[in-house]
Structures are given as structure tokens and as C-alpha cells.
Amino acid sequence: MTIAELYLTCFVVGFALSALSVLLGGVHVHVHLPFGVHLGNVHLGHAGHVPHAGSGGANSSGLPAVNLGTVTAFLAWFGGIGFLLTRHSHVYALAALLISIGGGLVGATLVFLLVSRVLMQFEAPMDAADYEMTGVLGRVSSRLRAGGTGEIVFSRQGSRCSSAARSEDGREIEKDVEVVVTRYERGIAYVRRWDELAASAGVDAGSPDS
User: Fold this and answer.
1) Which residue in 33, 99, 101, 159 has the fewest CB atoms around it within 10 Å?
2) What pLDDT, in 10s, does the model give residues 139-197?
3) Is residue 208 one of the residues assigned to a domain?
């Protein structure tokens, strides 16, 4: 294999893997590179979303500098620049190699910055506490019949949400009454009237947030 063919192979492999990462958005792969570099479980759709943030030197976004996206970008740019210099210029082999490495690093850096500063800013870590139903204050939107099921509405992270609900003590609760979720099981919120809980706790029923 000539040096030009080596560069071309790097370009084809890098470009093919980059294209594959775009086409197979939901696939997870487990990648190991030589010299002990571990890429971990890589989410191809984001070209390098790696749960193992400790490998490769992660930045503040948690994305490692060495990931599938940056590696494939390096290979594509390195191979493409090296092939062009080898076939269509009179640059010495060593100079072509150094220029190709520099070009590969530039390409990898651009991909890393794109993913870490643009794409990953829209990703937010899921906090189980944000989805905890117990203690949620809501309002009955569909009357809770005695021993039956109705519906409540409540606000979560700025959005209006709803849930099937039942009265905790089995008594009827009328529409528009404020209630508090005391437990949540199998998709059903069990609630009590806010005014009753407030009275038992000595809280002003007109001020739910107090």
C-alpha cells in the first residue's frame, strides 16, 4: 500500500463512519481504540454522546475530547488533506504528514466545538425529583366520584399536565377543588383536599405556597 492509498483509506473510513453516525441515530456501539483509549457507549445520533465522561478528558459539558465524532472527523480530514497533497502537490512526505495531522486536528476540534457548545446545550439531565408526584398541588378537572376515578391538572416546569386521580379517603371531590397528591401508584394519583390538609397543619388554606 502506497502512502497515497493509506491517506485515501483513512479518508474513506472516516467519512463512512461519519455518515453512518448520521444515518443510524438511535444506535449505540461499544468502541475500543488502540493504546487503551476507550470511547465507551457512543450514541451515534449525537456523534459522540458518551456516558463515560471520564475518558478522553471531558469539558464542562461532560463530552470527552476523544469520542467517535472527533475520531472520524480527524480520519476524514487527515486522509483527505494527505491524499490531495500526495497526489496533486510537490510537498515532501514529512511536510504532507504534518500538514495532514494539523488538518485532522482542526476538523476534530470543529466537530467537538459543534457538539459540545451547540448541540449539547439543548440536552438537560433528567432529575427524578422533577417527576415526583407526591406533594404536587393540583386542581380537579373532572369530578372525583366516591370510590371512582377522575382527573386533576397541575403545572410542571411551566407546562400544564394532567393525571388520572382518586380520592385518598374514597370521598367525592368536586370539580375545581384544589388537591394535593399524597401518593402515586400505577398511573393513578391519590389526592386529598388542600383545605383539609392545610387545616390539619394549621396553614392558611388560601395560600398553598406558604
Assistant:
1) 159
2) 999 888 888 889 999 888 778 888 999 998 888 999 999 999 988 888 899 999 988 87
3) no
Helix (H, G, I), strand (E, B) or coil at 176: coil
Give the position of cell 397543619. 201
Residues 6+ positions from 74 with CB-CB distance below 8 Å: 14, 104, 105, 107, 108
167's grid cell? 380520592
Residue 25 identity (one-letter amino acid): G
Q: Are residues 25 and 117 in the same domain?
A: yes
Residues, the chain: 210
Does residue 104 form part of some domain? yes
Cell matching residue 206: 388560601
Name every residue whose Cβ is closer than 8 Å to that of residue 129 and which is 6 or more positions away in sequence: none
Mean pLDDT in residue range 4-19? 86
Enter the pTM of the model.
0.41
Instruction: Provide Rg for the chain, Cα atoms.
Output: 29
Its domain, for residue 69, covers 3-122
| 186 Cβ contact partners less than 8 Å away, ≥ 6 residues apart | none
- Please indicate, yes or no, if residue 62 is contained in any of the structural domains: yes
140 and 118 share a domain?
Answer: no
